[in-house]
Design a protein that fits this description.
By secondary structure, the protein is of the alpha/beta class. The protein has 11 helices and 11 strands. Strands 1-7-2-6 form a 4-stranded parallel sheet, sandwiched between helices. Strand 4, helix 4 and strand 5 form a beta-alpha-beta unit. The longest helix has 15 residues. The relative contact order is 0.22. The model has no long low-confidence stretch (mean pLDDT 96).
Length: 258
């Protein structure tokens, strides 16, 4: 794995912010815990599934072995949004997950948030979105993370440009990260890195978050292929009290274990 220079690690900050898998790899060794934000749709789907009692196993997107991985872990496997059938009703679509039977365990591949979550090791990983940002921040503050002594990384997953392995920063993930950081700041955690302060200010400074996201590129993409309901679920602001934490290879609600 590539070594990252010191200037990239946002040293001294209690709450740090970066983008994508490279950002997670840069900050992961420097922090006590990591929050992954992929609003459209991995972490929103995780919140919906965990709310229903499902344990969610993250997995990289379409490497060809998701089915074998699911079988080895006694789990169902999610398919692509357009590949849903009566026999395979689970997908990355949060709307589809609400309609489907509730499995005990579900492998949920995605090219962004799931791939990032699966790649991080050695520290707790929390799945956050606009549905549970405040609950996540409250729980993190209770753990004592987000301080200079126990720093926290918030990673906006972003998207990829079609047909390219190039990160496209996605406004919904920036705002989802900003929602978590804003809620953490109310707990008076440690100093925010400049990158985290910018995300916080962006979230706090926009009056109508749902309207802005509904008109964003990612939302237009989903609406164009018939999945506007996924956007609507992602915009159920602070509707979930679940805190999905990756434990034993699966996201489960931290609050249900306390």
């Amino acid at each position: 794995m590539a070594e990252f220079p010191e200037w990239s690690k946002q040293g001294g900050a209690g709450v740090r912010f970066e983008w994508g898998l490279a950002g997670a790899r840069a900050l992961g060794p420097e922090v006590a815990a990591m929050v992954v934000v992929d609003v459209l749709s991995f972490t929103t789907s995780v919140s919906v599934a965990v709310d229903a009692g499902t344990r969610v196993l993250p997995y990289p997107w379409r490497d060809g072995n998701a089915g074998e991985f699911a079988a080895a872990h006694d789990a169902r496997v999610a398919v692509g949004r357009k590949a849903v059938t009566a026999e395979h009703p689970w997908s990355l679509s949060p709307a589809a997950l609400r309609r489907a039977p509730v499995p005990d365990r579900l492998v949920l591949p995605s090219p962004n948030g799931s791939a990032i979550s699966a790649a991080v090791s050695g520290i707790p990983v929390i799945a956050a979105c606009l549905r549970n940002a405040a609950a996540v921040a409250d729980w993190i503050a209770e753990q004592g993370w987000g301080t200079e002594q126990h720093p926290l990384a918030v990673i906006a997953a972003g998207e990829h440009w079609p047909g390219q392995q190039v990160l496209r920063p996605a406004v919904e993930d920036w705002l989802g990260a900003g929602a978590v950081i804003s809620a953490l700041a109310r707990h008076q955690t440690g100093p925010l890195a400049p990158e985290a302060r910018a995300a916080e200010a962006g979230y706090d400074g926009i009056g109508d978050i749902p309207a802005l996201i509904r008109d964003s590129a990612s939302s237009r993409e989903l609406a164009a292929i018939g999945f506007a309901d996924d956007v609507a679920i992602a915009l159920e602001l602070e509707s979930s009290k679940s805190v999905p934490v990756l434990t034993g290879g699966a996201f489960a609600d931290a609050l249900s274990r306390t």
